[in-house]
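User: I'm preparing a small set of examples for a lab meeting where we compare how different chains pack in three dimensions. I only have the primary sequence for this one, and I'd like the structure in C-alpha cell form so I can line it up with the others. Please keep the answer compact; I'll paste it straight into my notes.
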Amino acid sequence: MKTEEDILLILSGLRALYGNITPPFRSGSVELKKETIILKCVFDTNATEDDFELASIIAAEIIADFPNYNIEEIIITVPQPASAEPLKNLLYCRHELNYYKEP
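Assistant: Understood. Below is the C-alpha cell output for the 103-residue chain.
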C-alpha cells in the first residue's frame, strides 16, 4: 500500500520525467527516506553527459515540489541485458525484452 507521501512523490516524479527521457534512459525510481528523497536513474552505456544532465534536471523538478526535503541523485550506467534494482517507487522502465540481441 502506498502512503500519501509516496503518491505525491510518484506524481512529482512522473511530471519531472515528462520531456526529459532520452533513448539511453533505462529506468527511473524514487524513494523517501526520512527527510531525503532518493532519485535513481539508470542509463545504457551509450549515455552522454547531456543525458546525465537531464537526470539532474529531473531531480531539480522533483525537489521543487518538496522544499523541506533534501535530494540524493543516484545516476548509474548498466549495460543491457543486466538490470538494476529499482527503488521503492518505479516511475519508468524502458521495454527491452524483445529488443536486446546478443552481440
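A couple of notes for your slides: The first helix runs from residue 4 to 17. The chain has one domain: 4-93.

User: Perfect, thanks.
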